[in-house]
């Protein structure tokens, strides 16, 4: 009964779905399949909960799309946005002008970032941030008189956005197959996925092996042609791939050895997701550039950007002249006002520390409990991201579990039940993942985990009745 709450406003769901499928082309969606089902219409959010147009309450295990870190319904953010819109809704920062929220936000971000950062370039999204990174690192080597350093090394199964450069940096074969990608000068190495590639090794030994793939690629390309390496501290859309503790420090050592720029894509990990302000702090490396978006405004208004370390900033600012790059919405005053208020919330409510010391460990305990379910091979978490693998046969270790055949799409079956039972979890193949708002309390984590357990039970029934076990 608690899944239904009184409707504040009445919606004609069917009519909205028909209009939706008639006119709205959704991102990453098979429209023929969506037309038959009809999209779920989300109408309201409060805290960690959403409501759909039929009045169902849903616990949002994905923070929207990894972004609503401060939770829904923060009136102080809407008020900050309203005030800024009344004062100055827009002005550009191209022609020797600036605006108050953008200046304050740049200073605030530099204060929150690790000590090597001094400047910020603003964009409208994470994809634009990574496009900026590609142009910026190539420009950097240009300024330093090494224009042949063009190649950027990334990883298979990485996600860095959907623009031409973002999708090229990303390592998703389905994306490369459409639109003539990747662009020239992007190379991909294996991801530090212990489950997939670490059999027979300790996790820490595997971390060194996986980092070693970077050195092999640098030597194959030629060190004097490599501009940078980019990676997400914890890969998000690829299925919450948490690297062994040895991985990033070794990547750092290799980049230093060949004088290669190191870039952290913190679009997901930034702003507290892992229990530190930036994921690189937890993973033990010092990037030259950080791309960010999502959690900087908790998604209330679109905003992204690149934090620029002193090494790159010095070249760009002191020796570079014009950097011929920028967006109409670089430093948008309304987006920056939203970000300032969002960061104030994260600081004043000590949400990052809370993730590190309280809710993150509680989420880990909840996922360890879910790992005892007969359908779950293993589970892991890091701060407020977690994942579990659905398997046909449980084994004594993660490498001894027997997976389902991919084509059965057991993950999608499970995700279907999540929708029915009012919890949002994402399926990446047969890996089920969550990244809840940082405000989620212990009690709400327990409630989410209970709903997930019920979904696992329903999925197990399906799998049995279809004879897949
Ligand atoms: N980088 C990472 C790590 C991401 O997860 C995403 C979005 N999921 C992006 C970049 C792209 O950000 P946007 O969708 O804002 O362009």
UniProtKB/TrEMBL annotation:
The keyword Acyltransferase does not apply. CDD domains: OAT_like (cd00610). Pfam families: Aminotran_3. Belongs to the class-III pyridoxal-phosphate-dependent aminotransferase family. Keywords: Aminotransferase, Pyridoxal phosphate, Transferase. This is Aspartate aminotransferase family protein. Coiled coil: none annotated. The keyword Transferase applies. It comes from the Bacteria. PROSITE patterns: AA_TRANSFER_CLASS_3. Gene3D superfamilies: Aspartate Aminotransferase, domain 1, Type I PLP-dependent aspartate aminotransferase-like (Major domain). Its cofactor is pyridoxal 5'-phosphate. It comes from Massilia niabensis. InterPro entries: Aminotrans_3, Aminotrans_3_PPA_site, PyrdxlP-dep_Trfase, PyrdxlP-dep_Trfase_major, PyrdxlP-dep_Trfase_small. One of its GO terms (molecular function) is transaminase activity.
């Amino acid at each position: 009964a608690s899944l239904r709450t009184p409707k504040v406003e009445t919606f004609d769901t069917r009519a909205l779905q028909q209009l939706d499928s008639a006119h709205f082309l959704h991102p990453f969606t098979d429209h023929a399949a969506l037309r038959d089902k009809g999209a779920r219409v989300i109408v309201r959010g409060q805290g960690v909960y959403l409501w759909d147009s039929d009045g169902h309450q849903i616990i949002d295990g994905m923070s929207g799309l990894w972004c609503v870190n401060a939770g829904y319904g923060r009136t102080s953010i809407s008020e900050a946005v309203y005030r800024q819109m009344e004062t100055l809704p827009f002005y550009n920062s191209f022609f020797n002008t600036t605006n108050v929220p953008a200046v304050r936000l740049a200073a605030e971000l530099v204060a929150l970032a690790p000590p090597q950062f001094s400047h910020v370039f603003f964009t409208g999204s994470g994809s634009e941030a990574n496009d900026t990174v590609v142009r910026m690192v190539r420009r950097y080597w240009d300024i330093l008189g090494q224009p042949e350093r063009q190649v950027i090394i990334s990883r298979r199964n990485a996600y860095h956005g959907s623009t031409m450069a973002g999708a090229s940096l990303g390592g998703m074969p389905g994306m490369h197959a459409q639109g003539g990608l990747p662009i020239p000068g992007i190379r991909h190495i294996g991801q530090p996925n212990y489950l997939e590639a670490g059999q027979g090794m300790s996790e820490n030994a595997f971390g060194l092996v996986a980092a070693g793939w970077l050195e092999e690629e640098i030597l194959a390309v030629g060190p004097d042609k490599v501009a940078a390496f980019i990676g997400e501290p914890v890969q998000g859309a690829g299925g919450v791939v948490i690297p062994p503790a040895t991985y990033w420090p070794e990547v750092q050592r290799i980049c230093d050895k060949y004088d290669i720029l190191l870039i952290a894509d913190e679009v997901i990990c930034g702003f507290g997701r892992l229990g530190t302000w930036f994921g690189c702090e937890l993973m033990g490396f010092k990037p030259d550039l950080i791309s960010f978006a999502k959690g900087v405004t908790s998604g209330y208004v679109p905003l992204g950007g690149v934090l620029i370390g002193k090494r790159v900033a010095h070249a760009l600012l002191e020796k570079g002249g014009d950097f011929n790059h920028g967006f109409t919405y670089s430093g948008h005053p309304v987006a920056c006002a939203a970000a300032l208020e969002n960061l104030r919330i994260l600081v004043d409510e000590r949400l990052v520390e809370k993730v590190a010391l309280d809710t993150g460990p509680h989420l880990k305990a909840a996922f360890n409990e879910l790992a005892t379910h007969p359908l779950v091979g293993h589970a892991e978490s890091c701060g407020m991201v977690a994942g579990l693998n659905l398997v046909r046969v449980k084994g004594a270790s993660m490498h001894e579990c027997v997976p389902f055949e991919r084509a059965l799409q057991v993950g999608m079956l499970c995700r279907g039940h999540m929708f029915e039972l009012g919890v949002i979890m994402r399926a990446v193949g047969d890996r089920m993942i969550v990244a809840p708002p940082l405000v989620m309390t212990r009690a709400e984590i327990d409630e989410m985990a209970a709903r997930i357990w019920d979904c696992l039970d329903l999925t197990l029934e399906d799998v049995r009745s279809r004879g897949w076990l």
